[in-house]
Design goal:
With 261 residues, the chain is α+β, with helices and mostly antiparallel strands. The protein has helices at 51-64, 89-102, 125-138, 224-228; strands at residues 2-8, 17-18, 31-32, 39-44, 68-73, 111-114, 118-121, 149-154, 158-164, 174-187, 197-212, 217-223, 234-243, 246-257. The strands form 3 sheets. It has a 6-stranded mixed beta sheet with strand order 2-1-12-9-8-3.
């Protein structure tokens, strides 16, 4: 059975509204998003002297194109003398929530979280690769460490999201819509990285839940006109379990570049 939902996203941060949008909006020119073999979230800060090497690692991962690598700048180092121009309290909260879900106190920068499960120092590329390889060995899909099939199809009118696969749905397995920009280059004038110009890749600008996955094939249709109003470069969909209200394992993901194109 396919559970189908049609949503109109409100970018004024109000509740999502239902709208009647046909589920057959896919055209012959539809664009299909890619499936990464893993999701790597880097918690970084412009005020952290250890972070630029990790920021470069994310740039390398993005260039290679095999994983969904996301940069989530935090704000808790702002008091050191430089306010992170991309930092968001929501990113800091997500990082702390990961630590609560793992039942540890490991909150630091640069911290890379792989598939919502494993954390490593973000500048240590070998450890990131090893973590992905280990999770991939445990997966039922030889080409990915993510068991669920998440498909994004963009037509002239809509973005259709499909979620299916052998993953086991928890009580609150959430479907997240993530908006991110290709890159931001920042000249840092104060703090530990004073005088440096750092480029940040796949910078998360907004992240919001759009539904729940209950273990059966699920389809959602979002109006492209509303998505394009966000002003962000790209979007991704992440399906993630919840541990006592905190983010847990990521079961599936897909990306789509060029929202407005």
């Amino acid at each position: 059975m396919v559970a189908r939902t049609t949503l109109l996203l409100s970018f004024a941060f109000s509740a999502s509204l239902m709208m009647a949008l046909p589920l057959t909006t896919q055209s012959a020119h539809a664009e299909i998003g890619g499936k990464p073999k893993a999701v790597v979230e880097l918690f970084t800060s412009q005020g952290c002297s250890s972070c630029p090497p990790a920021d470069k690692v994310v740039g390398d991962l993005v260039a290679e194109g095999e994983v969904l690598a996301l940069t989530l700048p935090v704000d808790y180092w702002d008091y050191l003398g430089w306010r992170d121009t991309l930092g968001k309290p929501e990113h800091s909260e997500r990082q702390r929530a990961y630590a609560k879900g793992r039942d540890d106190r490991n909150v630091y920068t640069p911290q890379a979280v792989v598939n919502g499960q494993v954390h490593v120092v973000g500048s240590r590329r070998a450890r990131i690769d090893n973590s992905i390889a280990k999770l991939q060995e445990e997966s039922s899909d030889a080409s990915s460490s993510l068991p669920l099939d998440v498909t994004l199809v963009k037509s002239s009118e809509a973005l259709t999201i499909s979620v299916d696969g052998p993953g086991k749905a928890g009580k609150n397995t959430t479907i997240w819509l993530v908006f991110y920009d290709d890159e931001h280059t920042v000249s840092i004038n104060r703090g530990e990285n004073r005088g440096q110009k750092v480029t940040y890749h796949n910078v998360v600008r907004d992240m919001r839940p759009i539904g729940m996955w209950k273990g059966t094939k699920t389809e959602m249709v979002l109006p492209l006109s509303e998505l394009s109003k966000s002003g962000y470069d790209n979007c991704a969909v992440i399906v993630q379990t919840t541990i006592d209200g905190n983010p847990g394992a990521i079961l599936g993901a897909a990306t789509l570049n060029g929202l407005s194109s």
